[in-house]
Amino acid sequence: MQSDLLNYVPAEGMLRERVLLVTGAAMGIGKAVALQYARFGATVILVDKQDHMLEAVYDEILAAGYPKSVICQLDLLTATADAYHSLALMIKQELGRLDGLLLNAAWLGAFMPVRQHDLDLWTKMLQINLQANFLLVRACLPLLEKSPDAAIVFSTDTTDRAYYGGFGVSKAAMNALCDILAQEYDHQPFIRVNRIHTGPVRTSLRVLNFPGEHVDSNVGPEAVVGPYLYFMGPDAGQRTGEALQLAKIPADFHWAGEQGQG
């Protein structure tokens, strides 16, 4: 199953006329997946706080001839509930629909034991990794309920190791939120809800928090887009409530659909 989903390549135009929102779209897995969503026909709403980096992703999508994307600069640490409702209203008024959410943005401030855990870091990690995602999902559910094939995909991570502190707790709660949503939407209106744990990937977050790792020891973000395409698209059908946990992927692995690959 892992091999099948890692090598999954959708049919051309599979996501045509769909509107998909991706958080953490400025870099790493979010950027890699957003580019592929656009490649296969989706209008992608690019959400991140890094405005200049979002513009670079926007330009890359435009230069490739994919459907024009939408930039939404949003800081998950400081955005209010009203900001998420305003975003949902903009989507409804300007795009007319929303078919999928990729909840990918995350932040790990530091590793530390619970006894010494910094309260400010704890609060920030729960805000970015949990509260912000709840507020975004809640604001967007009315739009997703109207889509004929809606999907929510979570990027998840390790939750129960020593020193993971607020990051581990926030990710565990995210897993629970994913399971709750999958059960609440396993009937009409049906929304496909799944989560993906890619294992170690060469992202800036990984490099920052694991300085002892050789930079080339992990696979690049472009190699793990297959499962994200599968669970967001119609080929996944009624598969919901699944937690895909990938074993460590060889650093030289290339996705079968990577352009320029055979």
Automatic annotation (TrEMBL):
Domain of life: Bacteria
Family label: Belongs to the short-chain dehydrogenases/reductases (SDR) family.
SUPFAM superfamilies registered for this protein in UniProt: NAD(P)-binding Rossmann-fold domains
GO MF terms, alphabetically ordered: oxidoreductase activity
InterPro entries linked to this entry: NAD(P)-bd_dom_sf (IPR036291), SDR_fam (IPR002347)
Name of the protein in its database record: NAD(P)-dependent dehydrogenase, short-chain alcohol dehydrogenase family
UniProt keyword annotations, A-Z: Oxidoreductase
Pfam name, any one: adh_short
